[in-house]
Amino acid sequence: MLRRATPLSAAVRSLSSGFANITAPLNFWGGKRKASKERNNGENVFEPATGRVLCTLEPCGSTEVGQAVEAAKSAFGTWSKMSGMERARVMIEAAHTIEKRREEIAEMEVVNNGKSITEARLDVDSARLCIEYYAGLSSTLSGQHVQLPGGSFAYTRREPLGVCVGIGAWNYPFQIAAWKSAPALACGNTMVFKPSPVTPVTAVMLAEIFAEAGAPEGLLNVVQGGQETGSLLCHHPDVAKVSFTGSVPTGQKIMEMASKGVKPVTLELGGKSPLLIFEDSDIENAVRGALMANFLSQGQVCSNGTRVFVQREILHEFVDEVVKRTQAIEIGDPLLETTKMGALVSRPHLDKVLAFVEQAKKEGATVLCGGEAFVPSDAKLRHGYYMTPCVLANCKDDMTCVKEEIFGPVMSVLPFDTEEEVLQRANDTTMGLAAGVFTRDVKRAHRVVEHLKAGSCFINNYNITPVEVPFGGFKMSGIGRENGQVTIEHYSQLKTVYVEMGDVDSLF
Ligand SMILES: NC(=O)c1ccc[n+]([C@@H]2O[C@H](COP(=O)([O-])OP(=O)(O)OC[C@H]3O[C@@H](n4cnc5c(N)ncnc54)[C@H](O)[C@@H]3O)[C@@H](O)[C@H]2O)c1
Predict the structure, then answer these.
(1) Residue 7: pLDDT band by 50, 70, 90 thresholds?
(2) Percent of the chain with pLDDT strictly greater than 70
(3) pLDDT of 429 above 70
(4) Which residues are registered as beta bridge partners of 167?
(5) What pTM does this model have?
(6) Which of 179, 227, 236 to mutate for ligand 1's pocket (most ligand atoms within 8 Å of CB)?
(7) Do 150 and 101 form a contact (C-beta atoms < 8 A)?
(8) Which letter, b or e, does each residue of 456-490 get, where b requires 16 or more Cβ atoms within 10 Å of its Cβ?
(9) Cα radius of gyration (the chain)
(10) Which residues fall within 8 angstroms of residue 91, CB to CB, at 6 or more apart?
């Protein structure tokens, strides 16, 4: 079980990293936590803030994946027959529990992911809001009535798909589990969720919370593991849909696997999003926006606006302010209230991000600040995965740092002269997850957004994700949407019923 050294109350919080040991099983199906039988192939899971081993991941094999899918299939029989109002009641109860356990869930997210406690609390809130939002929508699912000649008519029914699979990335472990399960469950589906093997700790808490809220056994199940477990889920004949969040190459494999069973997919993939800052911007807000677009979650955010295009007239003023504020970001123990930037998720990932900075230097970019490994003064954090947030200048469009998703705290600044030029450069990428524009000219803002080839666009802000609003990408950044009303369509199917009121007019 989770052992904690200090009480939970936020008022008396004095937690610092290194307090948690996790020994409870992290799989969950049929209403209970389950240990994997294949214990001999366990992998270490690390606490990013300290580099300590946090727990062991026991990947599920085909038997256990089969048991989890079977549990979900059995729960589907009950859950799909409940009315939307009945499903909403369970979901609202789960949301209440999340609100009560907010601090504990956020702490576990920090322990496993390394992001700051302030951000982790917002992630837990987003998860709760998403469940509340879809609880509200679950009783609104309805069809259409179509009058036909001779008194005949047709109607449509919106029906669930069946057992849905969710596969998550490591950057928002609890939030991703909620963003996938909430719309799926609201529509009457059940789910088997597989978190990233790097962050296995909090998804199981969500499954437990649903079970405690009165969900039928098997409503939300969690299996742990990496690509093998994920692939077993995608190929399982009783799985009706796969919803995936992760990198483009894995997304391509998921789509290929799902295609074998003609299963629909939702793909939330990577990005290399542009942020356009025009000379008439409110510079203070543009600087804040650029920091929000680059340094949340140590830069490990899919929608990050890492290509910051700045109109030449304000380049120096903007860059001076961005660098000053970037250097002031407090890096350290992510469980401390004062920390603004915690640790990156793993040692290999930190090394990868630092290598991108080295490559940028080799290709001619200038490091204005950061880009180095950081060792906090607290001895217990010495082996954590920290780096200083980095701003790169003298960037060119064909440099690796401008073309590839770094997924770390590295901002590339690119000067531009005209609107036409910047739009062409901003769209010159195979990705299209997000984009942002800062300007005081309302006509320009909307004109620019119309031409930006990205699924989520921001005017005079960045990285805001209210759950009422659809989120997802164009081009290779994905298929389908999460959040908002439209997601109901991605987790349900339409049945048309034709009703004859006259005689059959046979041609034979
Ligand atoms: N668009 C979004 O909403 C969004 C959100 C968060 C992260 N991301 C993207 O995720 C990436 C970082 O996350 P990551 O490193 O965890 O991604 P990843 O693609 O390496 O892994 C994602 C998940 O897929 C699983 N997986 C890997 N290979 C698989 C296979 N062959 N079959 C089935 N499952 C498999 C992993 O175990 C993990 O759970 C970045 O590219 C980021 O942009 C996108």
Answers:
(1) very low
(2) 97
(3) yes
(4) 194, 244
(5) 0.96
(6) 227
(7) no
(8) bbbebebbebebeebbbbbbbbbbbbbbbeebbeb
(9) 24
(10) 131, 132, 134, 135, 138, 182, 185, 186, 213
pLDDT tens string 309-328? 999 999 999 999 999 999 99
Q: Tens digits of per-residue pLDDT, 197-251? A: 999 999 999 999 999 999 999 999 999 999 999 999 999 999 999 999 999 999 9
Alpha helices in 187-328 (DSSP H): 203-212, 227-235, 248-260, 283-295, 315-327
Instruction: Respond yes or no: is residue 268 known to be catalytic.
Output: yes
Task: Report the atom number in ligand 1 closest to the C-alpha of 473.
Answer: 1
- Which of these, 150, 210, 143, lies nearest to 177 by C-alpha position? 210
Q: Which atom of ligand 1 is nearest to the CA of 170?
A: 16
CA 118 to ligand 1 center in whole angstroms: 24
Structure tokens given for 499: 């009703």
Quick check: 168 and 251 in contact, CB under 8 A?
no
CA angle (266, 102, 23) in 5-degree steps: 85
CA distance 20 to 49: 12
Residue 39: the pLDDT is 56
The owner of tokens 């349900």 is: 492
The answer to whether 458 and 436 are in contact (CB under 8 A) is: yes
Q: Say if residues 174 and 127 touch (Cβ distance below 8 Å).
A: yes
Domains in the chain with CATH codes = 20-269 (3.40.605.10), 274-467 (3.40.309.10)
Confidence at residue 38, expressed as pLDDT on a 0 to 100 scale? 64
Q: Reduced to 3 states, what is the DSSP secondary structure of residue 187?
A: coil
Residue from 26, 196, 272 whose mutation best tests the ligand 1 pocket (most atoms within 8 A of CB): 196
